TrEMBL record:
Protein name: S9 family peptidase
Family matches, as Gene3D superfamilies: alpha/beta hydrolase (3.40.50.1820), Prolyl oligopeptidase, N-terminal domain (2.130.10.120), TolB, C-terminal domain (2.120.10.30)
Species, as recorded: Sphingobacterium alkalisoli
UniProt keyword Cell cycle, yes or no: no
A Pfam family of this chain: Peptidase_S9
BP terms from Gene Ontology: proteolysis
Length: 972
């Protein structure tokens, strides 16, 4: 072949590549339902690391499960229907079990008709891919380490006999025990709950039959085939929970009692299991008269054995007496009165919350015939008192959780001795690894003030599990700033953070030691700009030997002794490189602490370049070795349970996440296991990203990410959407999957349609959240324009929630944006400050004073700051066309905020449209609404930034009577 021919072919190939790129079509919103991608949260591996499986398919449609060998390209695909269901490899890596659902259309039809969905189970042998299928399966479990069996529970299909009350209909159904090797099986009837132990030798199961006939807890020894009936009763048994070693289990039994409204629960513990022999303990507490009056074992409790099998831990909760036969009234008052002198001292506000629960729920007490006093209709109302520690709205919102609240307790089995470990002040405790002690937080002394300003304090107590006694460990611990509180492995120390330093509390002596004051660095988070005093950097916890903790300053990683006498840096002055360990990867699932005798892996992040990578702390070494650092974003990083095969994901701004594996601990050789988002081959996609550096109006050097449009050509300028929230450049190498977003904006779709997308970092000065956004965003836009990529006459702005607030404020301070969309914006800091955050029932005051609002007091002492940063007070300066999306059931930002801004702009005859999706909360959940908002937003931006025809809903008024027809014409 001569040189002319070679050059001709090269130009031909280059021309074809350019032609292919230019002829890729933009992603339209109508393409989203068929967009195919891997569900990355579904990826699993066998314990030996030789196989992986994952689910992929369209956003709306039928899916496939891919089964692939990790060391070669052998791949099998199975159709699994229209929904993602759990799937599982067995312990010895020989089988996989997964569900097959009906197709997507049938599932949607069944959901609409409220019909149940029947699923099939397929078990596939990994050695030869032979399979076995079972119909109408509800749940499964492999027999753990034994690996010989699978338990298959079928959906209950039989209807109860005519005349039988639903309360007497059992919840049990057939359970099939299927031997994976010899294919033999046998059936157990009316099984409700079942669990294999760790070794797989035993399966404990409960029978729940119609009329409670034969109900009980049984234990089957799969080695001998012997079934032991541990207990029978006309009761319901549930929540089997084996200990980690598989040598004991606990569960609950519930039984009706005429003296109580709800069933009474009994604790059952089983241990010393040997063949047909075992020790069984039962405990109700009511009969023993040990549990506080008015309390019983909680139905929400999941009981579990202590490591030494001396104790069972469980929860207790309030129980209500049955109605008095004479008056028809519930004996709630007597229970409340009794509780004042009990072991659990209930706070008055808790009693008030519970005693007014009927009124809060809006239910009127029943009238009693023949009693004039009870014939009087009571008001349907709520009383708000200034002394309430929690607002009535908060109490109402949390009513269900209050009802389900459990007091953590324990039973010393041999002594039949009950201990309440918590109460209404210390509502729960965190057990130490030894389970001999725990810590609990008492918020009560500071609760009222904390609910007002969001500055949260608590007294930390150390609790003796054997006696229930407690001693004060740390007084008034500031929880807004603190890092994780962690016991050492032997529970001789407790790690905590206070006033800029990490401390250890010596449990035996109560001595507190500042372990970081001598280290030449700071452990105050330099990136947290909320109204929080000295917020902590993160810590990765204790080493396995209990001698050290691993603490991170803003960049470097430190190994610090428990007594603070020694410390060393595991990173070589990474502060100068702006490099940090962003995550510790827990690759040994059985290790509760960091074992420095084993190789340990950390995810890295370069704050300057936004590169990501992996570092290795080799066994018994004293410094991290950087294995990789590139323009990617690392996701999960894991290791096979058996052997040394590593799995991790990587993605880029314009490359979807892919799974990789390596058998080399230094990750020098890797194999790509997936081929995600095949549709990318047919559609135009972003050409990549550029990281910009700029100086904000406060003189700080910041960064912004500019995501390039699909058709990017150097020297050409493009319409641009500026998307804002807070700090966003950490996502420079993160992928955006085309989808219908709850907030209306999807970066991938806009890039595909010829838009550049600018995402700047915003840093804040206290008492100036809005002005801070202006000081950061406007210079970022100017820096992006200076690159020549952004057309200065075609820049739009979009943000949702806090980003919606900043959007609505920015357009009062600058005309640099030609169009803007604000989703769920707060617009009046003064009126918003004292409104209710309905999703929790608390006020916005705490959010303003300790969280995103970044204001330091109420508006009465800080009026200028509140007004200066409120969009509504600068509304006359708005010249930017604006779309507001604000829903009538928004429980985060009150709907009145959007209404106030809309009506103000309308009064001034400013171009504005508000979209309200009826019944929706802060973000859109309904698919039809997500589609509609996404389409309207792009139509609006296309009109102002691409000069397309104006949509009618923007350019013309909407007659309410014509609205249904208008919506029908736009539906797709």
């Amino acid at each position: 072949m001569n040189i002319k021919t070679l050059l001709f072919l090269c130009f031909q190939v280059a021309g074809l590549a350019t032609y292919a790129q230019e002829n890729k079509i933009p992603i339209s919103w109508k393409d989203i339902p068929s967009w195919s991608y891997i569900r990355m949260n579904s990826v699993q591996y066998t314990n030996d690391g030789k196989w992986t499986a994952f689910v992929s398919g369209p956003t709306q449609g039928d899916l496939s499960l891919t089964l692939r060998k990790t060391l070669d390209t052998t791949t099998y695909n199975y159709k699994i229907g229209g929904e993602v269901n759990p799937f599982e490899f067995n312990y010895n890596s020989k089988y996989i079990a997964f569900f097959e659902s009906p197709n997507y259309k049938d599932i949607k039809a069944n959901e609409k008709a409220k019909k149940p969905i029947s699923k099939k189970l397929k078990i596939v042998s990994l050695s030869d891919t032979t399979s076995t299928v079972f119909d109408n399966v509800q749940s499964i479990q492999f027999s753990n380490e034994d690996s010989k069996w699978i338990a298959i529970r079928f959906s209950k299909t039989t209807s109860r006999p005519a005349g039988q009350p639903s309360s007497e209909s059992g919840k049990g159904s057939d359970l099939l025990l299927y031997h994976l090797e010899n294919k033999k099986s046998f059936n157990l009837g009316n099984v409700s709950d079942f669990k294999f132990n760790k070794s797989g030798q035993y399966i404990a199961y409960t029978v729940d039959a119609d009329g409670t006939n034969g109900n009980g807890i049984l234990l089957l020894d799969l080695k001998t085939g012997l079934t032991s009936i541990l207990q029978n009763d006309k009761a319901n048994y549930s929540k089997i929970n084996w200990n980690k070693e598989g040598t004991a289990f606990a569960l609950l039994k519930s039984k009706k009692d005429k003296n109580y409204k709800e069933p009474i629960y009994t604790l059952i513990g089983v241990k010393n299991i040997k063949g047909g022999q075992n020790d069984l303990f039962t405990y109700t507490g009511l009969d023993e008269d040990q549990i506080t009056s008015g309390y019983g074992i909680s139905q929400n409790s999941i009981p579990y054995w202590s490591k030494d099998l001396s104790t069972i831990f469980f929860g207790i909760a309030k129980i209500e007496k049955a109605e008095n036969e004479k008056s028809g009234e519930a004996k709630i008052d007597s229970v409340a009165k009794d509780s004042t002198n009990q072991k659990i001292d209930l706070a008055k506000d808790t009693l008030r919350s519970d005693s007014t629960a009927v009124q809060i729920a809006g239910e009127r007490p029943k009238k009693q015939n023949g009693d004039n006093k009870k014939d009087l209709e009571k008001p349907d109302m709520i009383i708000w008192n200034w002394q309430d520690k929690r607002l009535q709205s908060s109490q109402r919102n949390q009513l269900e959780s209050d009802k389900n609240y459990m007091v953590m307790s324990s039973l010393y089995v041999n002594e039949n001795r009950f201990i309440s470990l918590a109460d209404s002040n210390i509502r729960s405790i965190v057990l130490s690894p030894t389970q001999q002690i725990g810590y609990g937080l008492d918020f009560k002394p500071y609760e009222f003030e904390s609910n007002l300003n969001g500055q949260v304090y608590a007294d930390l107590y150390i609790i003796d599990v054997k006696t229930g006694s407690r001693k004060l460990g740390v007084e008034k611990l500031y929880l807004n700033a603190t890092g994780s509180i962690k016991f050492s492995p032997s529970a001789d120390y407790l790690l905590y953070y206070h006033d800029g330093n990490y401390y250890t509390l010596h449990i035996a002596t109560s001595v507190k030691t500042n372990i970081t004051d001598k280290i030449p660095t700071t452990f105050i988070d330099a990136f947290d700009d909320h109204n929080v005093s000295k917020p902590a950097t993160s810590n990765f916890g204790w080493t396995q030997d209990g001698k050290h903790v691993l603490l991170k300053d803003n960049y470097d990683l430190w190994k610090v002794s428990a007594d603070g006498k020694t410390y060393s840096s595991l990173t070589s002055n990474w502060k100068n490189q702006k490099l940090t360990t962003s995550r510790y990867n827990k690759i040994y699932e059985d290790d509760d602490f960091i074992d420095l005798k084993k190789d340990q892996y950390f995810t890295l992040f370069d704050d300057n370049t936004k590169q990501s990578g992996i570092a290795l702390l080799a066994a018994n070494k004293h410094s991290l070795e950087v294995l990789s650092l590139a323009d990617v974003s690392f996701g999960l990083f894991n290791k096979s349970k058996h052997g040394d095969q590593f799995f991790y994901s990587k993605e880029k701004s314009n490359e979807s996440p892919e799974i990789f594996t390596s058998t080399d601990k230094f990750l020098k050789s890797e194999v790509k296991l997936t081929s995600n988002t095949p549709d990318m081959e047919n559609f135009a996609f972003s050409s990549g990203s550029k990281l910009l550096s700029y100086v904000n109006d406060f003189g700080d050097t910041l960064q912004a990410t500019l995501f390039l449009p699909a058709d990017y050509v150097a020297g050409k300028s493009y319409p641009t959407i500026t998307y804002i929230y807070e700090r966003l450049t950490d996502g420079t190498n993160s992928y955006s999957n085309p989808a219908f977003p709850g907030g209306g904006f999807n970066r991938a779709v806009y890039n595909s349609n010829g838009y550049a997308v600018l995402m700047p970092d915003i840093t804040y000065k206290l008492n100036d959240p809005g002005m801070s956004a202006v000081a950061c965003v406007v210079p970022a836009v100017k820096a992006a324009i200076a690159t020549g990529i952004v057309d200065p006459d075609k820049v739009g702005l979009q943000g949702h929630s806090w980003g919606g607030y900043q959007t609505s404020f920015l357009i009062t301070q600058t005309d640099i944006f030609k169009a803007a969309v604000a989703g769920a914006p707060l617009t009046n800091m003064i009126s918003m400050y004292s409104l209710i955050y309905w999703n929790s029932g608390s006020t916005n005051q705490s959010i303003f004073e300790s969280s995103q609002g970044r204001l330091t007091s109420g508006y009465w002492d800080n009026w200028d700051a509140f007004a200066r940063n409120s969009p509504i007070y600068h509304i006359k300066k708005v010249n930017t066309p604006l779309v507001i999306m604000h829903n009538d059931k928004d429980g985060a930002v009150d709907y009145t905020q959007g209404i106030e801004y809309f009506n103000g702009l309308r009064r001034l005859n400013k171009p504005v449209v508000m979209l309200t999706y009826n019944g929706e909360n802060h973000g859109l959940r309904k698919e039809v609404n997500q589609k509609d908002y996404a389409v309207r937003m792009m139509e609006f931006f296309d009109h102002y930034l691409k000069a397309t025809e104006s949509p009618d809903w923007w350019s013309k008024g909407i007659d309410y009577i014509d609205l249904p027809k208008h919506l029908e014409e736009r539906a797709f």
